[in-house]
Amino acid sequence: MELNLRIENKAGLHARPAALFAQKASSFKSSVMILKGEKSANAKSIISIMGLGVKAGESILVKIEGPDADEAAAVLQKIVNDKFGEE
Amino acid sequence: MWKFDGIPASAGIAIGQIMHIEEAVHDFCRVVAPEKIAEEKARFLKSQEVAETELNALQERTAQTVGEHQAEVFAAHKLMVQDPSLVEAVFEEIETKYASAEAAVETATGAIASMFASLDDEYMRERASDIKDIGKRLLRILQGKVEETQYTGILVAKDLLPSDTASIDFASVAGFITALGGKTSHSSILARAAGLAAVVGVGNVIEKLSNGDMVIIDGHKGQVLVNPEERLLEEYRQRMEKEKRRAQTLAQTGHLPSITIDGHHIEVASNIGTPADMDKIIAAGAEGVGLFRTEFLFLDKVTVPTEEEQFQSYRSVLTAMPDKKIVIRTLDAGGDKQLPFIGGLPEANPALGLRAIRLCMAYKDVFKTQLRALLRAGVYGKLHIMFPMIATLDELLSAKALLKEVADELVQEGIEHRFDVPVGIMIEVPSAAVIADILAEEVDFFSIGTNDLVQYTMAADRMNEHVAWLSDYFQPPVIRLIANVAKAAQNNGKWVGMCGEMAGDSLATPLLVGLGLTELSMNARSVPVVKYLTRQLSVTQAKVWAEEILTLRTTADIKKKLEEIATKFDI
């Protein structure tokens, strides 16, 4: 299961958005990976996500594998669409 | 006595004795026997638990003593302590290199910190200090030490990490000095919030300071005086007293009207970026809004904000100060503030390109929606509409014609609105300052935006440090343009104000009042000082000074004269 997401919130994947993403990703059994350019990150790790240095307007590819992949994809898509509740 | 300099991170003066914040000890056993792997892993997991407990307590205490916002950093620390990448890295060190838990934590957090430090984003680079902070905490716990909380006097540290600053009881600390850090580092921000004097980025010199040394921190200059003579101590004690009294006076007088000693009212207003700023400026004693930047409604949006959405925002600002003048600037986008829903071609010279009123006239639908929302909100207070970046009379006339068109449409549709909203322009392009006499006939007011006016007049990018000496609003050509604008407005019976950075500089206040400006709009922080000064001024005297300043030939001469004038006042 792959998702192509564009990060639209002002700060990019900074501490708070990264924390929210990691928390949501951790609530699923499936493994969640984020790919950006040549870098990849474990989406259940805030440190790993922040290490990608994703800025506003950049796109990421999210790979989800496991029993609850569909559900995880829907949840992760939603928090990105909602701009991590920043507005 | 000896002294050294650093970065002035937080203004104020502090006098006290040095107290070093001790770093975690780094001489621990680094390698363990292979059969101890499980034990070291368990020790790490235990330290993780203790760290979580400490962080919970710290978060709670900081929320109560400093603020919810400052406490959030510890919630992030908690997540990082529990982070699977950290655990993985620590376990790998223990399993493959037989590292002790201490050594594994040091290596793993060090590697993560370097990774953050290499990112091309200043905010993310700063996060390296969060990771180092976590590393220090875990190391201290592994070494069986508890957190020190009894800090007093002047604190000295290599870098004050968030945990350090949060475990400090600010009431018993006078100020601090750090070897690392800059104006925007965490500790500097906290020092300013807590009102402590601080000098940062002083380098290795901290090693020469011993516990118990008497020092004076001059947070204005960024200077530290070590073991000063009694005479100096006394001088600084008096300055400290004076600053304390001044802060008290400003707090007590912030709400008095700013009327000069010869009876002229100079409106001291504030600039705002969102309706949420209103509480802050009202508390500071602002007598209106001289500039409401409406960009916040647009910049983060993928689509154009609706008329209703805009109307609600404008109305909430107007109703927060219904009897005060509220100047709302129409969309000032383009240039370095690109709109996602407009896109647009990259420009070689965005500051001189399709921006502000030029962009609005090119996207009339977007502009008309904003004007409709403004006229509808106008019935709720003393709205003034201001167009940015006007450079020619034609631009002003076509913007006014569009406003008229919008008003006519609202009449036809029978929608409630105010049709006689005063209309002004921002003077920030030199061409407009030069033809101010022509423009003055067609506006109700002028507001001078010094930041862009300086940049365009001096042909010097204000963000370019290599030409910083040109970016000065005390340059004679800038002062002459301001004088020309003020004269044109007065000749036509219109008022003229200022909403750039210069308006909040109390050094400039006598000059601006002398040139005939009757409204100054600034950051909330500057309001009490400028009001306090205005109440001591006489417009008649200020005019004499302004005349003299207009004859001066260099920036240095102008500043010297203004500094001399400043000594005549209690500020």
Task: Tell me what the structure shows.
The complex is a heterodimer of chains A (87) and B (571). Chain A has three helices and four strands. By secondary structure, chain A is an alpha+beta fold. Chain A has one domain: Histidine-containing Protein, Chain: A (2-Layer Sandwich). Chain A has a four-stranded antiparallel β-sheet with strand order 1-4-2-3. In chain A, a hairpin with a 2-residue loop joins strand 2 and strand 3. In chain A, helix 1 packs antiparallel against helix 3. Chain A starts with a strand and ends in a 6-residue tail after the last helix. Chain B is α/β, with parallel strands linked by helices and 571 residues long. Chain B folds into two domains: 120 residues, Enzyme I, Chain A, domain 2 (Orthogonal Bundle), CATH 1.10.274; 306 residues, Phosphoenolpyruvate-binding domains (TIM Barrel, Alpha-Beta Barrel). Chain B has 22 helices and 16 strands. Chain B has an eight-stranded mixed β-sheet. In chain B, strand 5, helix 7 and strand 6 form a beta-alpha-beta unit. In chain B, helix 19 crosses helix 21. Chain B starts with a strand and ends in a 5-residue tail after the last helix. The model of chain B has no long low-confidence stretch (mean pLDDT 90). The interface between A and B is medium-sized, with 24 and 23 residues.
